[in-house]
């Protein structure tokens, strides 16, 4: 596979990773609200998300080296940017809209 194709696939993979990562984060935040053992849910969710991200970035490095890693990180950060822009800002406890 050519370097360009590898980089494009790594960027797409990073985007898919970002979607999965932030979907799992949103799910765990919703579960934290009603969980009896919130610390266990938080640590388990963090461990799962970190393992997923580490495995995906390692696969990018093994598949295409440094350029693929940079492309995967760029795809991940692009999704992160879109997800955070779409979220409304949190309402603080002392202020009401």
Explain how this protein is built.
- The chain is mainly α and 97 residues long.
- The protein has helices at residues 3-34, 38-86.
- α1 crosses α2.
User: What's the alpha carbon Rg, rounded to whole Å?
Assistant: 17 Å
Number of helices: 2
The chain-level mean pLDDT equals 88
Q: Percent range for helical residues?
A: over 70%
| Largest beta-sheet details | none
What share of the residues does DSSP label as strand, in percent?
under 5%
- Counting helices, strands and paired strands, the structural category is mainly alpha
Distance between the termini: 53 Å
Q: What general form does the structure show?
A: elongated
Characterize this entry briefly.
The chain has 97 residues and is mainly α. Helices cover 84% and strands 0% of the residues.
How is this fold's topology laid out?
Blueprint: H1 3-34, H2 38-86
Helix pairs in contact: 1-2
Task: Name its key features.
single chain, mainly alpha, 97 residues
